[in-house]
Amino acid sequence: TLIFLDVDGVLNVGLQADDGGAPLLLSDGNVRLAFDDSACRGNGAKILMSMKVWSAAARLYDAVCADEGHLSAVLVDRLAEIIEAAGERCSVVLSSHWRKPRHSDVVDALESEIAGRLGGYFAFAGRTELVEDNRPEDRLHIIAGHVKQHCASQGVQSLTVLILDDLFATPLRGWSCDGRRVRGAADCEAFVRRFAASKDLRLRVKLLHCYDEWETQDGVPVQAGAGLSAAGVEEARAFLKGDDSPAEGLLALPAKWGSMIYGSRGPRRRAR
Fold first, then answer.
1. If we measure between CA atoms, which residue out of 253, 224, 201, 220 comes closest to residue 40?
2. Four-point Cα dihedral 109, 112, 211, 235, nearest 10
3. Is the pLDDT of residue 217 over 80?
4. pLDDT, position 175
5. CB-based contacts of 138: which residues, under 8 Å, 6+ apart?
6. Residues 6+ apart with CB under 8 A from 19
7. More confident residue, 255 or 57
8. How far apart are CA 105 and CA 126, in angstroms?
9. pLDDT score recorded for residue 200
């Protein structure tokens, strides 16, 4: 089994507007800022207000990360559950921007965090190729290339691939991969299988897309790298056991979270 791990949007939560700006991390400091009425002014105010919804979720699931380290303890715990479920023959490959050399110190800290959860030694088995990837199709190409190279070099005839990624907080629509329109996770999985295919290879691929989107009451579209959900862990477990059927409502943001802040209306969800 190969697990490809993105970090931002999987082991933390980040919110951003549709303008393509940098995500606003769901951290202790930003949550405090979101609840500071004097700070909630200007262009970022509506995103900070939307963060109140996520901070309410974090009080239920502890998804807020510390200002230092950019990791949520609960989301790292969930990753460790998936690694344990994959068994001893599992290799975890870092496919995040964190794979770049300048992030080596935080990757060392992440490996230590995971090792602590697993109760033993842990290190990433590898990193995907160091080429620019700023679009979801770039990320999928790099992962598929790694799978193909791994199978060729190891003489693998059967492989299970689990991809944990928010794909740059991008919805699974409105873009193409290898000339084919993407309309859901199944299209991404099919691309990886096609790219890495060989005559004798049995390849199972699963993408857990850690993403959500909605609109604030004022109509501001918000996209989120939503973090690894508890339901996502269960779907990963089922996949690793050989059950490929999708879980219902994997990454939906429950309406009750919004009602905690906005009242019965809640934040308006974007049509998918």
1. 220
2. 170
3. no
4. 96
5. 131, 132
6. none
7. 57
8. 16
9. 82
Least reliable range by pLDDT among 128-132, 180-184, 185-189, 265-269: 265-269
> Could you give the CA distance from residue 64 to residue 247 in angstroms, rounded to a whole number?
25
Q: Per the structure block, which two tokens stand in for 168?
A: 């740059």
Residue 263, Cβ neighbours under 10 Å: how many?
9
Going by C-alpha positions, the residue among 143, 171, 169, 147 that lies closest to residue 159 is 147
Q: Which helix (H) or strand (E) holds 68?
A: none
| pLDDT tens digit sequence for 103-151 | 999 999 999 999 999 999 999 999 999 999 999 999 999 999 999 999 9
Provide φ and ψ at 17, rounded to 5°: -80, 170
- Over residues 229-256, mean pLDDT: 69
Helices (H), the chain: 28-34, 45-61, 73-86, 104-118, 136-154, 185-196, 230-240, 255-262
pLDDT surpassing 60 at residue 260: no
DSSP code of residue 103 = G
CB 132 within 8 A of CB 138: yes
Exposure string of 94-108, with b = 16+ CB inside 10 Å and e = fewer, is bbbbbbeeeeeeebe
Please state, in angstroms and rounded to a whole number, the distance separating the CA atoms of residues 167 and 142: 12
- Residue pair 253/212 in contact by the 8 Å Cβ criterion: yes
pLDDT on residue 177: 94
**Which residues contact residue 96 at a Cβ distance below 8 angstroms, ignoring those fewer than 6 apart?**
5, 6, 7, 8, 10
Write down how long the chain is: 272
Q: Average pLDDT of 13-23?
A: 70
- Are the beta carbons of 47 and 257 closer than 8 angstroms? no
